[in-house]
Amino acid sequence: MAEFNIESPKKQDAKRGELLGRVLSLKDLVQYQDGTVASRMIVNRKSGSITLFSFDEDEGLSEHTAPFDAVVTILDGECEVWVAGETHQMKEGDTIIFPANAPHALSAITKFKMMLIMIRE
Fold first, then answer.
1. Disulfide engineering: 2 pairs with which of 37, 62, 64, 112, CB 3.0-4.6 Å?
2. Is there a contact between 56 and 4 (Cβ–Cβ < 8 Å)?
3. CA-to-CA distance for 96 and 50, rounded, in angstroms?
4. How many whole angstroms separate alpha carbon 99 and alpha carbon 10?
5. Are 103 and 37 in contact (CB under 8 A)?
6. Strand order through the sheet with 104-108
7. In the CATH hierarchy, which fold is given to the domain comprising 4-119?
8. d(Cα 103, Cα 89) in Å, to the nearest integer?
9. pTM of structure
10. Residue 17: in which H helix or E strand, if any?
11. pLDDT, tens digit, for every residue of 36-94?
């Protein structure tokens, strides 16, 4: 599994400011990078965040848990996700909710992009 390609918080804040009040094509805001996972946070608040990810083919995120509910929407390509022992195939336009504290993982079938909305309590 690849490591994330993450920018500094100050640089991310400046880029997020450029997005305010604009019509956006979410899948165009994060680019594919060979052999890795790239991310771009577009909203970051105490109440939650929205982050865009791109995964090269055969990349993914190993099983983990999060203390908050997470909503994942596939923006491009196809992937496989595992949630609490169940496997799901997902493609562009599909959405899944990972419940708080449920083990989950995902893996690219093809290159794919997703939006992660993390709701914090």
1. 37
2. no
3. 15
4. 30
5. no
6. 60-64, 104-108, 78-83, 86-91
7. Jelly Rolls (2.60.120)
8. 17
9. 0.83
10. helix 9-17
11. 999 999 999 999 999 999 999 999 999 999 999 999 999 999 999 999 999 999 999 99
The per-residue b/e assignment along 19-58, b for 16 or more CB within 10 angstroms, e otherwise, is eeeeeeebbebbebeeeebbbbbbeeeeebbbbbbbbbee
The first and second tokens of residue 25, run together, are 């094509």
Q: How many CA atoms lie within 13 A of 4 on its CB side?
A: 12
Pairing mode of beta strands 60-64, 48-55? unpaired
DSSP state of 2: P
**Which residues are paired to 78 by β-bridges?**
91
Domain edges within the chain: 4-119
Q: What is the mean pLDDT of residues 27-43?
A: 94
